[in-house]
Amino acid sequence: MLITGASRGIGAATAILAAQHGYAVAVNYRNSRVAAQEVVAQIREGGGEAVAIQGDVSREKEIVRLFSEVDDRLGRLDCLVNNAGTLERQMPLAGVGYDRLQRMFQTNVLGPVRCCQEAIKRMARSAGGRGGTIVNVSSIASRTGSPFEYVDYAMTKGALDALTIGLSKELAGEDIRVNAVRPAFIHTEIHAAGGEPGRIDRLKERIPLKRGGRAEEVAEAILWLASGKSSYSTGIFLDVAGGA
Fold first, then answer.
1. How far apart are CA 89 and CA 173, in angstroms?
2. Which residues have CB under 8 Å from 118's CB, separation 6+?
3. Cβ neighbours of residue 123 under 8 Å, at least 6 residues apart?
4. Active centre residues (catalytic)
5. Structure confidence by residue, pLDDT tens digits, 40-52
6. What is the assigned CATH class of domain 2-240?
């Protein structure tokens, strides 16, 4: 399993859980080398197999290199988890600059698309592969639009949802299932990146379950979609958002 953006948060929790389920895991990171190595060390201490591989998924050449390193270091690819994403400071869309839009779409849309293309080359039956699974990490923002805060981010997650639906139908005959999780209100560092570390505390009374979620709870949904337990599901979305 290759997990993009796996040095912390949902990606790290998914890597650790995947290893516990018997996957050899490629822990991708962009800048957080120490954090990625800590995830790998935790997996190895538990008897699992993992490697840390640097790569910026907003850059095509680095995506190609990332997959090549996975080939060399882990062999066959069975699952891709498109988890890496970016978020910038809260503001209404009217104030969002073009450079920010480019950064957002480069990482949150073009990166996952390109990663899917590389995964297809390795998994597709028609290319000599053995099939596999792709799990995209979207967001409830794709449904709500996240007004006055992250409309640009929500737009990218809407695109990821469309990718999930369309690609699931294109790849069904290749024995590749494509699904997505849509988290929200999860306790990770992403809220600090948006300028409000305490955002969940501000909003928790509006959440039906009255609390924020844990990265491990999202990881459980990702692993279900990645595994044979969801063998008759493709093109579906699991919302992990406390009932929101």
1. 41
2. 63, 64, 67
3. 77, 78, 129, 130, 131, 132, 174, 175, 176
4. 153
5. 999 999 999 999 9
6. alpha beta
